[in-house]
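We examine the record.

___
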Amino acid sequence: MQRLCVFCGSNVGNQPIYADQARRLGEELGARGIDLVYGGGHIGLMGILADAVLKTGGKVIGVIPQSLKDKELAHAGLTELHVVDTMHQRKALMADLSDGFAGLPGAFGTGDELFEILTWAQLGLHAKPIGLLNVAGYFDSLVAWLERAVSDGFLRAAHRRLLLEAADPVHLLGLLQEYHPVRGPEKWIEKEDR
């Protein structure tokens, strides 16, 4: 894996562990020589993560819509900054630039990016690894919902396994780097498959 795209909050949250784990992930990316691809902001967990990678001498590639750059939210010290017109273009370019994906704590934007990339994997549009850094149990209820979706017949177990999980950045990066894509079943569940 040469480049990891990370989706995370534009806020830092109200518990120091969120910033600590974002910083640890950034330091580990830099130590492993993995470039960071992210949303291009200097605020929140995004900024902490980018700064940590840069501090190690690593490369950081940001992708930001012009509307957010106009609000002075773009990180000024990145290796590369791509300015695009729309959020859709942002997500597509981040996906194209990356060899894998990880989600950290965040809210609507993080969820949107994470679930779009999971849906693309489910549909067979890419076979890149996708992970979730479950800091302090932040995503426990999301993981429970996915398990419920499987048990209630809305999601195939094979597709549930597209989302790797770890509570520690080192463990998560290990899972992402060891990932071997497996061609899964079609997304749609036939009546007799239930």
